[in-house]
Amino acid sequence: MSKTGLDNRHRNHDGEISHKHGATLVGTFRKIYGQGFAAGYPATEKLSDVLPQLNETSLSQLRRDYDTGHLEHKIAKSAK
User: Fold this and answer.
1) pLDDT tens, residue by residue, 29-44
2) Angle 26-33/56-68 helices, nearest 10 degrees?
3) At CA 32, angle to CA 62 and CA 70, rounded to 5?
4) Which of 26, 27, 63, 76 is 20 to 30 Å apart from 39, CA to CA?
5) Distance between CA atoms of 39 and 59, rounded to whole angstroms?
């Protein structure tokens, strides 16, 4: 079991997201979650670069969809 880190983030879990979707641009996630996702970062940044600094709202949205298996489908749909 992983230890809880800053903001109750489980580092192993965030690492899985970063590994699988780290190259996805913030702009793609804004199409999914709205303009407030990763606020303050350019749309051209990769998720892996901003993941450690995400606010709780953005991180919760991302983790919820990852946990339920919906994240890949949403990313693919936003690319169309």
Assistant:
1) 999 999 999 999 999 9
2) 80
3) 55
4) 76
5) 12
* Sequential DSSP letters for the chain: -PPB-GGG-BHHHHHHHHHHHTTSBHHHHHHHH-TTTTTTS-TTSBHHHHGGG--HHHHHHHHHHHHHT-HHHHHHHHT-
Q: Which amino acid does the sequence have at 31? A: K
- Look up the pTM and report it: 0.79
Q: How far apart are the first and last CA of the chain?
A: 37
Of 53, 62, 49, 48, the C-alpha closest to 19 is 48
Report DSSP state, residue 41: S
Whole-angstrom Cα distance, residue 67 to residue 76?
17
